[in-house]
Amino acid sequence: MIFLLLPLSVFIIHSILPTYYHKHFNSNAITDTQQQGILLTFDDGPDEIYTEKLLDLLNKHDIKAIFFVVAKNAKKYPHLIKRMMDEGHEIGLHSLEHKNACLHSYFYTKKDFQQSLDIMNQLNVTCHLYRPPWGHMNLFTYHFMKKHQLKLCLWNVMIQDWKNQSKSLLKERLIKQCHSNSIICLHDSSHDCGADYGAPLNTIGALELAIPQLKIKGLKFISLERSQ
Fold first, then answer.
1. For every one of its 228 residues, what pLDDT tens digit does the chain have, with 9 covering 90 and above?
2. Does the predicted model carry a pTM greater than 0.85?
3. How far apart are CA 15 and CA 121, in angstroms?
4. Which CATH number covers residue 53?
5. For residue 78, what are the domain limits?
6. Is 126 helix (H, G, I), strand (E, B) or coil?
7. In 139-228, which ranges are continuous DSSP H helix?
8. How many domains does the chain have?
């Protein structure tokens, strides 16, 4: 029995407790906008198929967002990173290759941050925000966040848009769940990060339907610098 309890205890200390603590008790983590407004955030990109379409939609509605990018994807599509910056969006870090921190060591975590930030520096991007894949952290994640002067940004609205669901269903979830200090976590990449193929097209379609209705409800779309 002790041979089972020991690895379980190590996993709880290494992965479960850090994730739980930083989600629920870290007062420095950004978990809502702290004022009246909706903040759109997108994880897992950039993606050659979907990100351009999403940027077109945001530009049409004059909405600024935060893109939490996977560094290896950013390296593949530097023109999309440049467009994000040129159009006034914030770029945050979402890991090197979208691996779950719960399953990795000090040395991989160190490499994850260092190589990611090296790539972003090569793209002339200074990241101030970090969002771990799936929101999972390990015992060393926060140490490297502080070392690289990154602030943890989580979310309080998620509509499971990584699944291939109808845009009308996703729209209804957005309308129902969004409130006056929402940080919405959506996704602009699919199969490379574990989502269903084509799912971001439904996300984009849902946003096209939901944005006017959310504005009618009196909800404003804001950027992070106006929300902090």
1. 666 677 778 788 888 899 999 999 999 999 998 888 999 999 999 999 999 999 999 999 999 999 999 999 999 999 999 999 999 999 999 999 999 999 899 999 999 999 999 999 999 999 999 999 999 999 999 999 999 999 999 999 999 999 999 999 999 999 999 998 999 999 999 877 788 989 999 999 999 999 999 999 999 999 876 433
2. yes
3. 29
4. 3.20.20.370
5. 2-227
6. coil
7. 141-147, 167-177, 199-216, 224-227
8. 1
